[in-house]
Amino acid sequence: MENRKKQVTYGMVGGDLKALIGECHRKAIALDPRAKLVCGCFSAIDELNDECAEAYHVDKSRVYYDAAEMAKKEAGKIDFVSICTPNFVHYSVAKVFLENGINVVCEKPLTLKPEEAEELARIAKEKNLLFAVDYCYSGYVMCKVMKQMIARGDIGDIISINADYMEGCFLPLLSEKEQVNTRIWRTDPKYSGISNTCADDGTHVEHLVHYVTGLKVRRLLATADTFGKKLDLNDNIILEYENGAHGAYWFSQVACGSPNEINLRIYGTKGSLEWHQTHPDEVRFARAGEAAQILYRSGDGIDVPAGKLGRIPYGHPEGYYIAIANVYRNFISAILKRCNNEPLTDDDLDFPNVDTGVSGVKFFYAVIESAKNDSRWVEIK
Ligand SMILES: NC(=O)c1ccc[n+]([C@@H]2O[C@H](COP(=O)([O-])OP(=O)(O)OC[C@H]3O[C@@H](n4cnc5c(N)ncnc54)[C@H](O)[C@@H]3O)[C@@H](O)[C@H]2O)c1
Fold first, then answer.
1. Which terminus of the chain has fewer CB atoms gathered within 10 Å of its CB, N or C?
2. Same domain, 27 and 169
3. pLDDT tens digit sequence for 261-316
4. Boundaries of domain holding 34
């Protein structure tokens, strides 16, 4: 057992010094000292790349100015790559790393088009590579607790779901004649494809509801408000799940004063569960005929296995970094076990995978298709 591999190495594409999510990935990965950043193509701008090498302690010989070159040169040398670029760069970069036999973690939405996402899923499976998509909210311990409580039947059969993702980051856009901030590539179809808010935030909710309840969406109808801009900024959706239950989602990036709120309410025949990302360590649990109670992460009264997944004692808040770290914890465990020829457990594979990515892209396609066709029902296949 002495030769057992205990650490992996990784590269990053995107995530320069000014970028948002790359830094979150690096910090989240560093919470479990099992992965070392050794190479990168951190920016499409050469000078920024060089600055990153110094700041991230990456040897200059392993900084690349083209992701495809990085994939070829690093094949067989790194255990995985983290892709933290804008949406339009995900597909080509993920594809070239897969083709070079490298496991992938990619940001969401996985691709701009469903056929691209399906192609990535096919290549990953053909090559037997691990592929995670950073739908990080399912990394929160209390979301795992809800999933296990629902699977055990604690709230009975699900009869109704209500979920939203609210933020106000693009409200200023409504008073601009032209888009002036070039860094907000999200609202430009060249870089974001057919959807902004639904692809960016809505797919998180689509994934989280599926993760927690196990239910798939059968069909949906939607409105998508653009307020005269190029892409959706506020979406309202009615859904029908495969068990016949209905749900309602609302995603907005023009919701003044809402701080990346994700609110999830799940109602069943015997009870209900409610979770808010602004208080991620708490779940409101009600059993029919009894007073509702608040369950706290790592606190009393949680008797499903996920109750033991908290990293710090009850009362000290865990948060977004730890949710991402939990995605990586399982993903890296799976890589290490494969390297050590050990069998993988369901827990090792408890991370949003490439099929989750495909599902997200199909979801925002259906939402935009419905909205463009007078909110007619659209089946999801
Ligand atoms: N999971 C989440 O909660 C979450 C949160 C925020 C963003 N995201 C996703 O992360 C991705 C990046 O978002 P962001 O907010 O960090 O964007 P950003 O604009 O802040 O950063 C993008 C980074 O990609 C780099 N880049 C662009 N083109 C490149 C190329 N061709 N090669 C190499 N690097 C390139 C830029 O230099 C920059 O470092 C998006 O897909 C977004 O949807 C996910």
1. N
2. no
3. 999 999 999 999 999 999 999 999 999 999 999 999 999 999 999 999 999 999 99
4. 8-129
